[in-house]
Target: Trehalose-6-phosphate synthase
Amino acid sequence: MGARLIIVSNRVAAPDPKGTPSAGGMAVAVKAALKNRRGLWFGWSGQVSEEPDPLPRVIDAKRVTYVLVDLSKNDVQEYYNGLANSVLWPILHYRGDMQEYSRADASGYLRVNRMFADKLSPLVAEEDVIWVHDYHLMLLGHELRARGHRNRIGFFLHTPCAPPDILQTLPLHEQIFGSLVHYDLVGFQTANDRDNFARYLVARGASPTRGGAYEFEGRQVKLGVFGVSIETKTYMRLARNAGRSAMVALVKESLSDNRLVLGVDRLDYTKGIPDRIKAFERFLEDCPEWRGKVTFLQITPKSRSDVKEYGEIESEVTGLIGRVNGRFGDAAWTPIRYVNRSYSRTVLAGFYRAADVALVTPLRDGMNLVAKEYLAAQDPENPGVLVLSEFAGAARELEQALIVNPHETDAVASAIKHALEMPLDERRDRHAPMLSHLQVNDITKWAEDYLSALADGRQTRRLLDSL
Ligand code: G6P
Model:
């Protein structure tokens, strides 16, 4: 048997009606990367069961075999809501001050990482290449090594990586962040993220090798930069045809002649939604000529609602939107439309294409695929304008966007005005190079670049041949 690709992630986009769909970028990207590729995708079924089945559930789809494990209520609380989303998520997004650490959650995280290794281990053959995704499963590489697996094992961090001073605020940082050296390759979204982690390793006593790897406690780990991307071609096609969607037509009609400003984010405190609403409010204050002529549609599916901070951000956002709508709206015009649901890819592509401006203004973001999807969805002859936070990984690649500091309300307000009033020539000049960049650097290239860096030459050929 040739080398197989084994993907491991907490959330799995399995073709299962019972599987929890994810609004998150990680599962979407991995799904796209696996498209037309043979492999095995291992992860959480999305189901909670008090007596998890000792054997994982197996779903054989066309080319991909999904192997899914259930979690207990306690696992979900301590590992997913607890250490992963109340501790690692804020720390990696530079918010060490927001972590809610507890020993119980830390041991739940270790327990679930071990359980994943126990259940995956019997499925691993010698030649397989294993690719682990995201902060939920940092320890998995170490756990697999402890079970004797000498395979090529890689890890990719979809979130940002904070500087060492912030990583060190995690009480068990040596055990959790330090264990990443058990992977052969650790991939990051941007050079900044990679450099932060390299500095963390060096501060712990690692030394750089000639080949660009780091040596630490007898292990060698390579660090690399692989900016995640989208299925650019597919997205362009979807957006061209999305006009046929009844929902898109309905929204366009409901706008009358109003211009459309769009925001699409999971409801998360890292996304800067309150700051963005305040900027839109400032724009309406400063530019009375635009009142009644522009609608801001903010699409915000809820996520991780069992984590306290997510409930708090929800009340803050709804309060702010109420204030702006009450202050500037009238019986015939609502300045901000706010919806807590997700839409299909096709409908979303239609919204992107219809939008004159996209506001992608996170306070910190690993990459942000909304920025890329928005650009791919535009009509190249008459493109809209992307307003992009300098703190999204995407800003390192999409330099022709209107780059803003999301904390600077006045600057974001004037960027909205600039975007709405930008002449066609300038819109085209900005859009064209970004679209070309995305046509070359799409999701397939991301997966190929990563796997070529991870696997040895022979394995790479086999893995890429299965495309
Ligand atoms: C977003 C983040 C990913 C993360 C995912 C988890 O996509 O960018 O880094 O893995 O959310 O989402 P979930 O819905 O599973 O908590």
